[in-house]
Amino acid sequence: MENTIARPPFDPEIEAAFVAMGGMPSFTPEMIPVLREAPVAVERDPREVLSERGFVFNDRTINGYDGDEIIVSVITKKGRTGTGPGFFHIHGGGMILGDRWGGVAQFIDWAERFNGVIVTVEYRLAPEFPDPYPIEDCYAALLWTATHFEEFGIDAARLVVGGASAGGGLSAGVALLARDRQGPTILGQVLMCPMLDDRDCTPSTLQIDGLGGWDRTSNQTGWGALLGDRKGTDDVSIYAAPARATDLSGLPAAYIDCGSAEVFRDEDVAYAMRLWEAGVQAELHVWAGGYHGFEFLAPHAAISRESVATRDKWMNRLLGA
Fold first, then answer.
1. Most CB atoms closer than 10 Å: which of 109, 141, 185, 216?
2. 3-class DSSP state for residue 167?
3. CB proximity list for 269: less than 8 A, separation 6 or greater
4. CATH topology (fold) of 12-319
5. Which runs of E-coded beta strand occur in the chain?
6. Where are the domains of the chain?
């Protein structure tokens, strides 16, 4: 398929930020090792932010998929007492990049506001560890978290899963697994620009092609690494690609957001609509002019600040603030 569809324009303020960074290349498979070596230029080390805000973290080694060892970090306010919600964080990176610290800083305000605990998981990355390693690592970490609710002071009735991009897709997959395996009860799922569909067949995938960043080429690279030759075939699990699920009933309340000018727009909108059809409470926001990850790349832009504030308001309602 060739790109013959005009895309919605970028918001001028975040477009200026994109241009100022010199743009970003599309990611191809041979670039994965180089990208993993490259420093992250748009984000401070979240551990510095955590320390400045008075948080401490404790690394724990647990059994992931197939009994192999993985690491999770348990993050709490220093001197915390009592009980509060649990925030289970899954990082983004297109299934091929990143670590458990990427994006965790956005959960700090919630943990502070609600006396909560953040658990963030170091799931293994494709292509070295293809599906089902990432999703099963995440689910194993969720089960481990549930067995430590009392130790960590987590209210079992207020468990929230969430993440951005691949982390959003994995969060949706974890919610499906918890439902289908009668796992821990999840109160809410925060799906930020989630990566849900491997089939590469929506208008937004054609619109966001050749732009650099997480465009169609990058998306094909990520799904190809995760699924290999199974990508786009009938041999793909609903837990790896939640957009393929035919039954979305019984899932936790969802917050879904994305930009109007990003690859994931159409699959995210479709997922919200299908949650509503299944009787699930869901809130959807499509930010006009937003490209993928705009609030991380241009955090001071008006659209970025509004998107974060809107997400915060949803969390306040979910947790009863």
1. 141
2. helix
3. 258, 284, 286
4. Rossmann fold (3.40.50)
5. 55-63, 69-77, 84-90, 117-121, 154-164, 188-192, 253-259, 282-287
6. 12-319
One-letter amino acid at 71 equals: I
The sign of the dihedral angle between the CA atoms of 100, 105, 108, 110 is negative
CA dist 154 and 114 (Å) reads 11
Distance spanning both ends of the chain, measured CA to CA:
48
CA pair distance 25, 293, nearest whole angstrom: 15
Summarize pLDDT for 149-205 with one digit per residue, the tens.
999 999 999 999 999 999 999 999 999 999 999 999 999 999 999 999 999 999 999
Q: Which two tokens stand for residue 247?
A: 């039954």
Identity of the residue numbered 289 = G
Tens-place pLDDT, residues 85-120: 999 999 999 999 999 999 999 999 999 999 999 999
Determine the residue type at 118: I
Strand partners, 69: 63
Contact 121, 135 (CB under 8 A): no
Taking the alpha carbons of 240, 1, 10, 17 in that order, is the dihedral positive or negative? positive
Residue showing tokens 């932010």: 49
Are 159 and 85 in contact by the 8 Å Cβ rule? The answer is yes
> How far apart are alpha carbons 303 and 310 in whole angstroms?
10
Instruction: Of 67, 72, 188, 187, give the one whose Cα is nearest residue 121.
Output: 72
CB count in 10 Å sphere of residue 255: 25
